[in-house]
Specification:
The protein is mostly helical. It is built from 14 helices and six strands. A two-stranded antiparallel sheet has the order 1-6.
């Protein structure tokens, strides 16, 4: 992935005086409050998911599987809004791969369709199927996986052999275990794993239903534990908050780095434009559940939350306070108007994708080669995010912040490299 480096000239010297430093500190506190609330909401919805999974395992049925899937979908809403805290906060970047890594070679975890294939030169474990294999060899060492535990998933399986596609933990591992593979290509429908994959004894489908249940329970337990840890980093006295507040200028840079990188390289590039270039339904962020439209939409909402200093919690309450918008309007009111307009336009364009998907035009259908309507919708979102990033760059300049690095993507910066 290419990194675009934006270097600006300090035009304002924003934190030069005591009053302006205090204003910046207030903005950073709002940002940290929103992070704390977002991760707490992610935790509570993951705990509800864990409860729904426990019910599914105890009493497999169409109803309990559906309830677990719905709990997973609900858990994604607050979490996707927290992705804006990536890129600028090292503590989040170092942790994020445990909870939201994608895409994954699902054959590492469970059975897959015959067309999926076997081990490859890039990944010898691509079809390991640890659920069916209580022992296996990893880097020449015999691994005892008789008991499937959070420790086994986190310390042995996740990114095994140093391969990023060996995703054994997090939301998308749980997603695969709830939905199974989406074998519809660009056609209608998401994954359709039967509830009988969790029936113990007679009636079990897919084999190893006891171990599949153990894996699902371990993965959800680990997800809750990881979110619990991150939520604690943003409360008063938490490491993430303390690091952020230690230097006002660095803190503001972290905010804008997260906004620009999530907008440009990550969402517009790696998650949207790249998938459209490859016309590959496997490039969906949530390819098993067909939930990618919501992933992109709530990423956009998360960027807007940070700029406006406002976050609507899952219980309907509002977290708000002094914002980047307040700082920008003080130095360039027209730029603040532009930034707000671009944020609204990007969320609107992403919302049009969401609306279309919820009406039956799924994101993987939009990715099909020659589907003009799908390309128009996706590129509307991509262009909205790019234009939004251009305004974020101008905000960086207006606030006199130097050396901001935004994540890039070959799909945007060097498209010919995608096919090399």
């Amino acid at each position: 992935m290419k990194t675009t480096i934006l270097t600006t000239t300090a035009l304002v010297g924003f934190v030069a005086g005591a009053a302006t430093a205090q204003e910046a500190a207030e903005v950073l506190n709002t940002y940290a409050d929103i992070a704390a609330a977002g991760y707490e909401d992610s935790l509570t919805t993951a705990q509800a998911l864990e409860d729904a999974v426990a019910t599914l395992i105890a009493d497999p049925s169409p109803e309990t599987l559906s309830a677990a899937r719905e709990a997973w979908l609900e858990a994604r809403v607050p979490y996707q809004q927290t992705e804006v805290f990536r890129f600028g906060n090292a503590i989040v970047d170092d942790w994020e791969g445990r909870v939201n890594a994608w895409p994954l070679d699902e054959g590492l975890i469970d059975y897959v369709d015959g067309a999926y294939g076997g081990p490859t030169d890039e990944n010898e474990l691509a079809a390991l199927n640890v659920i069916a294999n209580p022992t296996f060899t990893l880097s020449g060492t015999e691994i005892d996986a008789t008991e499937i535990t959070p420790t086994l998933l986190e310390e042995t399986l996740h990114e095994a052999d140093g391969v990023e596609a060996n995703v054994a933990t997090g939301y998308h591992a749980v997603e695969f275990l709830l939905w199974g593979q989406d074998l519809n290509g660009h056609g209608d429908g998401a994954g359709n794993r039967p509830y009988t994959d969790y029936v113990q004894g007679e009636g079990c489908t897919g084999g190893n239903c006891d171990r599949r249940a153990d894996y699902l329970a371990a993965a959800t337990e680990l997800l809750v534990s990881d979110l619990e840890w991150m939520a604690a980093q943003w409360v008063d006295g938490g490491a993430a908050r303390e690091t952020l507040l230690a230097d006002e200028q660095a803190g503001l840079s972290a905010m804008l780095t997260g906004m620009g990188s999530l907008s440009y390289g990550e969402t517009a590039g790696e998650r949207m434009r790249l998938g459209l270039m490859l016309n590959d339904p496997e490039e969906e962020h949530s390819c098993f559940a067909d939930n990618t439209h919501n992933d992109h939409f709530f990423n956009g909402v998360g960027v807007r939350n940070v700029y406006l200093g406002r976050y609507s919690r899952v219980d309907g309450t509002l977290v708000s306070g002094p914002s980047l918008s307040d700082l920008v309007v003080a130095v360039d009111a027209d730029l603040d108007t532009e930034m707000r307009s671009r944020l609204a336009a990007a969320v609107l364009a992403l919302g049009e994708i969401k609306t279309a998907a919820e009406a039956g035009f799924a994101y993987d259908e939009m990715l099909e080669r020659g589907n003009a309507g799908g390309e128009t919708l996706i590129m509307g979102g991509v262009n909205g995010l790019i234009e939004q990033t251009q305004s974020i760059e101008r905000v960086v300049t207006a606030l006199g912040l130097d050396g901001i690095e935004f994540e890039g993507s070959d799909s945007l910066d060097n498209p010919s490299a995608v096919f090399q």
